[in-house]
Amino acid sequence: MTSFPAEAPKDCDLCPRLRGFILEQEVKQPDWFNGAVPSFGDQNAELLVIGLAPGLTGANRTGRPFTGDWAGDLLYQTLGKFDFVEGTYDRRPDDGMTLKRAMITNAVRCVPPQNKPIGAEINQCRPFLRSRIEQLPKLKVMLCLGKISHDSTMRTLGLKLSEHKFGHGTEYAFEGMTILSSYHCSRYNTNTRRLTEEMFETIFARAKALIDA
Ligand code: URA
Fold it and tell me: Which protein residue's CA is at the shortest distance from atom 1 of ligand 1?
């Protein structure tokens, strides 16, 4: 077990560009969360959903992953369909909703400009992802949303990217667990129908089947 924390401090300053961006938001939007967003969910999670990074007006505003933006509407709706949600998601962190058997985290914990973290930031944040994974004793399935999440998760686990390429619906084994990947549930991907609700549900159905097996 590593001693590195699974969650970054809210005022994490390991990435100067991201810290600077958050400080700019703090001036513009003092009522927003504006910090490294902690993972959310069940400490006994069997499913870990790994997103990219907090959205500016979603998780960076509300302080809960995927909460308050389009990507979250689809993610929480789908988690609900597969019985990972207790209560009702209502786009705010005090909606009383909890996750069961599931947790949501992000490969990068601070909001990046234009939703695009640079390589150095993804690398800098990776120890938090590694600890997050290590500190889930019942974990069975990791579900990566998008290529950045997929690649960072593979690097975290020491798996070669050349042999573990990202694709929608890819599935790789690791120490008795399974790593699934999906196109990110962003508004762009759903608007262009690169990802449909049905495609997303098929991935969750597979995750659920693996967990219940
Ligand atoms: N919100 C998050 O927390 N992560 C994402 O990847 C997208 C939106």
Answer: 66
| Ligand 1 atom with the shortest distance to the CA of 65 | 3
Q: Which pTM was predicted?
A: 0.97
Whether the CB of 51 sits within 6 Å of ligand 1: yes
Domain ranges of the chain: 16-212
Contact 204, 78 (CB under 8 A): yes
Is any ligand 1 atom within 6 A of the Cβ of residue 110? no
CATH number corresponding to 16-212: 3.40.470.10
Q: Report phi then psi at 18, rounded to 5.
A: -70, -40
Tell whether the model's pLDDT for residue 22 goes beyond 80.
yes
Q: Which atom of ligand 1 is nearest to the CA of 52?
A: 6
Distance 106 CA to ligand 1 centre (A): 7
Quote the CA–CA distance of 184 and 56 in Å, as a whole number: 16
Residues 150-209 have pLDDT tens digits of: 999 999 999 999 999 999 999 999 999 999 999 999 999 999 999 999 999 999 999 999
CA distance 118 to 125: 11
